[in-house]
Amino acid sequence: MGKDSLMISNILRAVLVTILMFSLSAKAEVESKCLGSSCFPGSANIESYDLPIRAVSRFRYYFFKVYDGALYYPQGKNKLLLGIEPLKLELVYLRDIERDDLVKPSIDYLEKHSSVSYEGLKERLDLLNAHYQAVKEGDRYSLEFAPGKGTTLSFNGEAKVTIPGDDFAREYLGIWLSKNSEAKSFRTNLLEQLEKGLE
Q1: What is the spatial distance between Cα 131 and Cα 124, in angstroms, rounded to a whole number?
Q2: Residues 147/166, Cβ–Cβ less than 8 Å
Q3: Continuous segment of H or E residues that includes residue 112
Q4: What order do you get walking across the sheet with 158-163 strand by strand?
Q5: In this structure, how many other beta carbons lie within 10 angstroms of the beta carbon of residue 54?
Q6: What is the pLDDT along the chain (199 residues), one digit of tens a residue?
């Protein structure tokens, strides 16, 4: 191979490497999603499931911003099946909140809206709630459901407890994601993006 051919070959190789690196970087930027100052990774690994981010939304209480959330769910599945399909719901808090103000709404909701006996959930709910703590602005809680394993609560990326039962996942995640959720606009935004695609 002549010197000119070798030089052209090296140039082409360098160009291809540059294009590949740029493509990977651009892909990473597309996969991650930010809502205001809250940024979420493009995917979440739960047990053997690799779940892409499918939707983001913000919850407000009257005029107060409370948290931003991201929903991770299997690609190609546009109907939310709580307690059946694996999922992750991650919340980034936009203000300081005391522990009791995080825990009490879940008790009130499940006492009122649970489709199964509340007494059948209470022991597991108490165990989950025992692992909640007050949050500061920027703290994150996430709930990950893996079929056959249960629902894992994590705080700032650290797993705190796993609660068994597909029934528990269905009822507890319904606080944010069921038709009875009091975070109605938050839920509606998530489901619309799940159906139509995340922009």
Answers
A1: 11
A2: yes
A3: helix 99-113
A4: 43-46, 49-61, 64-72, 87-93, 140-146, 150-155, 158-163
A5: 24
A6: 555 555 555 555 654 444 344 344 434 444 889 999 999 999 999 999 999 999 999 999 999 999 999 999 999 999 999 999 999 999 999 999 999 999 999 999 999 999 889 999 999 999 999 999 999 999 999 999 999 999 999 999 999 999 999 999 999 999 999 999 999 999 999 999 999 987 6
